[in-house]
Design brief:
heterotrimer, A mainly alpha, B alpha/beta, C mainly alpha, A: mainly alpha, 6 helices, elongated, B: alpha/beta, globular
Chain lengths: 258, 215, 222
């Protein structure tokens, strides 16, 4: 992954392999989700969206946790690598989280009869998580020295991620006031084909995450290289400022030298 | 290498300052004199280069350095809504000074009486600088850092500054002054650093003129 | 450290007493928000009683942004922060001191707002201990995260717009808890207010801890 110093594109053997798996995998997943797997007893065809919604939600969390880890490691080791990982993962996490909310909303419409349900704590707090990481990305864009930006983003990223357990456990901890589907993965009552499609979904979305991460990380890395080059340029100018007629001591001070 | 935001204010600093030295820092505007003083106060992180002040390493020991430093900066660091006395009281308490010391400093700098209950935002520039100077005296640091100390002061004020410097020098404190108004402090022990483009381009201690420092 | 923190807190509060920004400018602003909500909702008293807790906490948050900005401005305007760093007071003490000062200012604002709400919305309280407890905890969450985010959003020139975007989402869970607790305390909502206090405590403690640990590092680059 770190082998991109002199390239100006972000593809590699690895990403090509992942890309091809996705070109094959995504249509396969959609086929299974929307055709092959059976309709659910309770939800009919609405369940099909879950094959996308659930994995995307899971990987949104994975992405945000990665950001938090990247932030923690950055604060600890001050390494640009970890900072770039944190940033890249946050961006992808925001996309996946947005998709989670959209697919969730579409799924909810026929089932709950509403596009949005304020009474559902998990739904609402996922939206809040989305906004928190939007704030993280906004902070990232602010012009400042790289160290400052990285340090501050790290703290924000960690606090935002600390809210993940609150989001995830909110359903069980506090209110039973939810229309949210209880976790049927662990029920064990799913049919073979349904189970298979779900796992296929997990794998395909997982590969999408890795593929996007690889590209985004490389882009981010290149951005930091460009920034360093820019700073090196400014340093160069400053040095030149210093060396033009620099031996120019004020003659009258000779007698001040003891 | 010291950055202010994304600007490399200091690009090459290699220096050692020992106890009791009186150092005059000269250079054109924008050369980095203020930044150098702030660095010597331990307020700024240094990325490359090396420097010690009184055996405190500027790279690794800047937190420890701070308690020994008194900085008279361009921005006076006072709370504009509080009165002179309230400011002095607050800061003096953080330095561990007594009320008596506060009172005597106020006398010396002409802040006692009417001025002491005036809010800092209503003071003139000169009065603010005198308050700042008073705090320097109260703190009694072993390192005095003065950034353009004569700016905004009348003859009276300038006299005060000079007597502070002499006192500090006599007491064996280390004094660094950045100024383009004076060419000499008039002390035998004096050392001059010439700063330009973020580098120390000359150091009178070397006895040679035009000695270049590598960044 | 407690002594130093207390010193900083007293100083901030003294500045507020001298400048009266909270009293003269920010307090009327909270009143204004509530009144605007009253107009905008075109409400009858029943609706106002139902929405009261929510409006209260939203107004408090909006106003907290201003209070946080003021708290940061005090240190930045004449580089008093540099002097503070040179004074030997530890960053953690500065953090606690400023959080305490912000806390006191917010509580005063909230008490005023609360009384106004009781009057304007004709509300009655069933459960005062719950009100007090939830207010104490929520305000702690707001002030501890506010002091921290005040520094994070400062010194980069876009503070006014960046601070709300960073600061408010982080308090959304606290607002949920506080509003439910208040709703229960006013007898309007069938929620277990005391259970929500658990959430509020966790948030308050976590933010305070993170603040104490990271404030020092963040101060350094301002």
């Amino acid at each position: 992954m770190a082998n991109t110093a002199k390239q100006d594109f972000t593809t590699s053997q690895g990403t090509k392999f992942m890309g091809i798996s996705l070109i094959i995998g995504i249509p396969t997943l959609l086929a299974f989700a929307f055709f092959f797997s059976p309709a659910d007893d309770n939800m009919d065809d609405a369940v099909r969206l879950l094959y996308i919604h659930v994995p995307v939600a899971i990987f949104a969390y994975v992405a945000f946790i990665t950001t938090a880890l990247g932030s923690i490691f950055y604060l600890w080791k001050k390494s640009r690598w970890w900072d770039t990982v944190a940033h890249a993962s946050a961006e992808i996490g925001v996309i996946f989280c947005g998709l989670t909310l959209i697919t969730g909303s579409i799924w909810g419409r026929p089932t709950w009869n509403t596009w949005w349900e304020w009474g559902d704590v998990r739904l609402v707090t996922t939206l809040v998580l989305f906004i928190m990481f939007l704030g993280y990305l906004a902070l990232r864009q602010v012009p400042a020295s790289p160290d400052l930006r990285a340090k501050r983003s790290s703290v924000v990223g960690i606090i935002a991620a600390v809210n993940i357990p609150i989001v995830n456990r909110s359903v069980e901890w506090w209110e039973n006031n939810t229309l949210h589907q209880q976790s049927s993965l662990t029920d064990g009552k799913l049919e073979n084909l349904t189970l298979f499609t779900l796992f296929l979904g997990l794998i395909i979305i997982g590969i999408s995450y890795l593929w996007l991460m690889t590209h985004r990380f490389r882009v981010g890395w290149m951005a930091t290289e460009i920034e360093s080059a820019g700073i090196a340029g400014i340093i160069e100018e400053r040095l030149n400022e210093g060396s033009s007629n620099s031996g120019n001591l004020n003659p009258q001070r000779k007698e001040d030298i003891s | 290498m010291v950055f202010l935001g994304q600007f490399p204010a200091l690009t090459g600093v290699t220096m050692k300052i020992s106890q009791g030295e009186i150092v005059l820092i000269k250079g054109p505007n924008g050369a980095g004199k203020s930044t150098l003083l702030h660095l010597c106060a331990g307020l700024l992180p240094m990325r490359k280069g090396s420097g010690t002040i009184l055996d405190f390493d500027l790279l690794t020991q800047r937190m420890e350095l701070r308690a020994h430093v008194g900085l008279l900066a361009h921005r006076t660091g006072l709370y504009s809504d509080l009165t002179v006395k309230e400011n002095l009281k607050f800061w003096a308490t953080t330095y561990g000074a007594s009320d008596a010391e506060i009172d005597s400093a106020m006398e010396v700098f002409g802040l006692a009486g009417r001025l002491e209950s005036v809010q800092v935002q209503n003071l003139s520039e000169g009065q603010r600088r005198r308050t700042s100077l008073a705090l320097l005296l109260i703190k009694r640091p072993s390192i005095w850092l003065l950034d353009e100390p004569y700016a905004g002061l009348d003859d009276n004020g300038r006299g005060l500054v000079n007597s502070c410097i002499s006192q500090a020098a006599e007491a064996g404190s280390t004094v660094l002054i950045a100024s383009h108004e004076i060419s000499s402090i008039g002390s035998k022990r004096e050392r001059t650093l010439q700063v330009k483009g973020g580098r120390i381009v000359a150091d009178s201690q070397d006895g040679k003129e035009g000695h270049h420092y590598d960044p | 450290m407690i002594r130093d923190a207390w010193l900083v807190a007293k100083k901030d509060l003294l500045i507020e007493i001298r400048s009266r920004i909270i009293i003269n400018q920010i307090a009327p602003y909270t009143l204004l928000i509530i009144v605007l909500f009253g107009f905008a909702l075109d409400a009858d008293t029943e609706t106002l009683r139902d929405t009261g807790p929510g409006l209260f906490w939203v107004s408090t948050l909006l106003v907290a942004i201003l209070a946080v900005q003021r708290s940061v401005d005090i240190e930045i305007s004449d580089s008093a922060l540099d002097r503070l760093l040179l004074s030997g007071i530890s960053p953690a003490s500065i953090y606690i001191g400023k959080t305490i000062a912000l806390y006191v200012q917010l509580i005063i604002l909230e008490v005023g707002l609360f009384i106004v709400m009781l009057v304007l919305f004709d509300m009655s309280v069933d459960n005062y201990p719950l009100i007090v407890a939830s207010t104490i905890l929520t305000t702690l969450a707001i002030s501890s995260s506010g002091t921290l985010y005040g520094v994070i959003a400062s010194g980069v020139g876009v503070r006014e717009t960046l601070l709300p975007v960073l600061f408010l989402p982080v308090l959304a869970p606290a607002v949920i808890g506080a509003t439910r607790a208040y709703g229960d305390a006013f007898g309007r909502v069938n929620a277990d207010g005391w259970a929500w206090l658990g959430l509020l405590s966790v948030i308050a403690i976590v933010y305070t801890l993170i603040g104490m640990l990271t404030y020092g590092k963040l101060l350094e680059e301002t």
